[in-house]
Design goal:
Blueprint: H1 7-16, E1 20-25, E2 30-33, H2 35-41, H3 45-48, H4 53-56, H5 62-75, E3 79-81, E4 107-115, E5 121-130, H6 132-219, H7 228-240, H8 243-274, E6 283-285, H9 287-297, H10 299-302, E7 306-312, E8 318-320, H11 322-339, E9 344-353, E10 356-363, H12 370-373, H13 393-403, E11 407-413, E12 417-425, H14 433-436
Adenosine-5'-triphosphate is lined by residues 331, 335-336, 339, 363, 365-366, 368, 376, 381-384, 389-395, 418.
Length: 443
Amino acid sequence: MIQPDNPSLLRFIVDRIEVGTFAVDQEMRIILWNRFMAVHSGRGEEAVLGQKLFECFPDLPRKWLEKKIQSVFILKNYSFTSWEHRPYLFPFYHNRPITGGIDLMQQNCTFIPVKDANDSVTAVCVTLFDYTDTALFQGRLKLAIKDLEAERVEQGKLIKKLEEAHNQLLQSEKMASIGQLAAGVAHEINNPIGFVNSNLGTLSKYVQDLLRLLDIYAQSEPALASEPQVLAAVRKTKQEIDIDFLKEDLSQLISESKDGLNRVRVIVQDLKDFSHVGETDWQWADLHKCLDSTLNVVTNEIKYKAEVLKEYGDIPEIPCIPTQLNQVFMNLLINAVQAISEHGKITISTRREDDWIKITIADTGVGIPAEILNKIFDPFFTTKPIGKGTGLGLSISYSIINKHGGRLEVESLVGSGTTFSVYLPVQQPKRNPDDQAAGPQPC
Ligand SMILES: Nc1ncnc2c1ncn2[C@@H]1O[C@H](COP(=O)(O)OP(=O)(O)OP(=O)(O)O)[C@@H](O)[C@H]1O
Ligand SMILES: [Mg+2]
């Protein structure tokens, strides 16, 4: 039968439990010191009882501990410290030091007010629980979480790379089909243009010959005086067809047709240049030619909505993948024109800034609200209606420019317009484009 008021039983329990237990009076004299404290401190009960705590153990954090104990005396309430905030009170060695990492015992401490019959606190009992195992597990858990977090970051990076590759693939497929279409159309148009052009040359020569003959006939008109009927018919027809205007207009018509044909030829050439989609080689390229050929390809989209101003500076050819830059210029130009609601201006400027070529494409469109400005380069971010935009144009452009060692920047003011700036290095530091390119080539 357990006697709760049996002092020797209570003392037995206090000594046997694996919890450090000691008590101090108001003068900080030790009045209780259990076996756990004796074993771990190396100081038995007989050596410390009646002694002042801080004289016996000068290494204790006196200022803090004194305050803690005093507060229990005054407030008459339990107090607690966790190993996570203060790893230990007494520098005891851990029971199983081999378990790794932590040598000193991690302690959770409770400060218990010991009250007399008048509810006055006569002593403070302090208990020390060994939390080293928990601390060790927590440490391992933290390490495992850290590893997991690192893995998560790594996975995030991989997913991003995968996403980029996927987008790049989508866009290049899109570009490849545009390119194929363009190349096919260009090829089909090339043939008829060839013979129309050649026919037009012959026609022009025939017309000159006929006009020459007509002049001779005109000179021989007086000889028809004896044939008044014929002369009258000739004069009537000349008047009806307005021969002077016809002669003048004929050559103009032919020369205008030649001009028109030439323009078609340039467009076809641009389409062919633009459609070299398969080419991924680094080449020396004239960016003005890249811009012009791209501009011609998208001219139909632009010409009814925007006036295009070119402010081309003096820039050198640079090593690049021209078809990819064409793709960037096309994305920026299409975005610019799509941002213009009625009619506006698109200004393309180029200049050299130290070791960089700066190409800006500025529009007078609606502008980009500040709150979405940091999202526009995200894949699939679009404000355009379903079916009109995939939201890939800028993210692809960004990665292409990045691949060229350059940067793509944007400035925008809602209601005024947007300027995209492409910076490309004059030199490619890591690659040697001469190895791959046959020499400077147009885009
Ligand atoms: N010049 C611009 N003026 C105003 N907003 C722009 C301009 N350029 C891009 N944006 C904004 O950035 C978004 C993302 O552009 P991005 O080119 O990546 O995709 P998209 O044009 O919507 O679709 P896609 O290019 O795939 O057809 C656009 O939806 C638009 O809101
Ligand atoms: Mg776009």
